[in-house]
């Protein structure tokens, strides 16, 4: 592909250590004498990433595939129809005031093209709250032949043209989730495949104006100790960054979605938020360049309160990135149970969403306390072999 050299210096603010307070914010110069792809959206990618990684805000992930959304709806006795999926997403995306705590929302393709019952496009609801619309672009996991019962992520067919279409529809960032299983090895083949796939996707997304969220989820499954998770996470992220660099991905225009470094879900001892923060930050500091603007964790089956406490613990000291959340289950669980599919519960369910979003916003700033949290929010949501 043709490339260009830009000469003028450029600079932008990135999210350094804003978690405690703004004293730690710093200005990063982006030397422009680097080779970038012709016709690329580099400036816009930087702006999008910066807007998503803004203080006290994080991502609402509601990009469940229709099959996974169906499981959620079934848990409250609803059928998996387009009308029910639309009604649930409308509840979430029309919550007034959400933009104070939420900077981006990841949507499934169906939702990106849907509107509210009275005809307002969901993307416009988001823009009205200063929330950036995002889109899941992977096509899910399939078995990886030659591996140890592991999987790989599909979605490359037509990816560039799909990304271009999603951009036209208003999406400005993308997500690709692949998984790594510790009990299955992980094999060198599975790690390499995950890392290469993420890097290829990231380059294609950036080429089409979408900030890629890079998500190699290390599943919670297993009875291993936290040290083993650290070892695997370091290995996975080393490979991911090696291939991101090989694919000329602009690091300032990506966001990461890592799993927190925790013991396996079936390990005999649970780790405290302080321990999880210590191990997770150790891994990030060893592997993630400070050029990356935002680290947006997944919740991975932790309870709502656990996920928030762990994020809060990570923001007790300054770090080079915006360390925040991109939760699905840990933002939606109470909301869904409050709604129960009943129109008269919509308002209370929206309040429940605001409560969770605000709690995580406080955790992003390092100021969350779990005081007053109810028992439901403390229930773990781990499921063996979870699919998204
Ligand atoms: P959870 O927060 O439920 O683990 O969501 C994972 C995810 O990839 C959502 O986009």
TrEMBL record:
GO CC aspect terms: chloroplast
PROSITE patterns registered for this protein in UniProt: ALDOLASE_CLASS_I (PS00158)
Protein family membership: Belongs to the class I fructose-bisphosphate aldolase family.
One Pfam family matching this protein: Glycolytic
Annotated EC: 4.1.2.13
Record protein name field: Fructose-bisphosphate aldolase
Subcellular location: Plastid, Chloroplast
Species the sequence originates in: Dendrobium thyrsiflorum
Cleaved signal peptide residues: none
Enzymatic class: lyase
């Amino acid at each position: 592909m043709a490339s260009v050299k830009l000469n003028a210096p450029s600079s932008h603010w990135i999210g350094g250590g804003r978690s405690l307070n703004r004293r730690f914010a710093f200005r990063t110069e982006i030397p422009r004498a680097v080779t970038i792809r012709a016709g690329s959206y580099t400036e816009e990618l930087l702006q999008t990433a910066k807007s998503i990684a803004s203080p006290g805000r994080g991502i609402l992930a509601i990009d469940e595939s229709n099959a996974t959304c169906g499981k959620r709806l079934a848990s409250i006795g609803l059928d998996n129809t387009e009308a029910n999926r639309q009604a649930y997403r409308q509840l979430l995306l029309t919550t007034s005031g959400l933009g104070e705590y939420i900077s981006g929302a990841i949507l499934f393709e169906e939702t990106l093209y849907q509107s509210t019952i009275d005809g307002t496009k969901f993307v416009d609801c988001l823009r009205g709250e200063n929330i950036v619309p995002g889109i899941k672009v992977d096509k899910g996991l399939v078995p990886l032949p030659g591996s140890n019962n592991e999987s790989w992520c599909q979605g490359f067919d037509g990816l560039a043209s799909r990304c271009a279409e999603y951009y036209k529809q208003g999406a400005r960032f993308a997500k690709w989730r692949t998984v790594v299983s510790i009990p299955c090895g992980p094999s060198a083949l599975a790690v390499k495949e995950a890392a290469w796939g993420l890097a290829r996707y990231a380059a294609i997304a950036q080429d089409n104006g979408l900030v890629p969220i890079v998500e190699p989820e290390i599943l919670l499954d297993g009875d291993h100790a936290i040290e083993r998770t650290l070892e695997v996470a370091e290995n996975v992220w080393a490979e991911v960054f090696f291939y991101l660099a090989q694919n000329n991905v602009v690091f300032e225009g990506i966001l990461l979605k890592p799993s927190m470094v925790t013991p396996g879900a079936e390990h005999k001892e649970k780790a405290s938020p302080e321990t999880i923060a210590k191990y997770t930050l150790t891994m990030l500091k060893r592997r993630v360049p400070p050029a990356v603007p935002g680290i947006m964790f997944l919740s991975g089956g932790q309870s709502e309160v656990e996920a928030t406490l762990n994020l809060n613990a990570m923001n007790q000291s300054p770090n080079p990135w915006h360390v925040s959340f991109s939760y699905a289950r840990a933002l939606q669980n109470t909301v869904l149970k409050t709604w129960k599919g009943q129109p008269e519960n919509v308002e209370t369910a929206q309040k429940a969403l605001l409560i969770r979003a605000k709690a995580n916003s406080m955790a992003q700033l390092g100021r969350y306390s779990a005081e007053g949290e109810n028992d439901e929010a403390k229930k773990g949501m781990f499921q063996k072999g979870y699919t998204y």
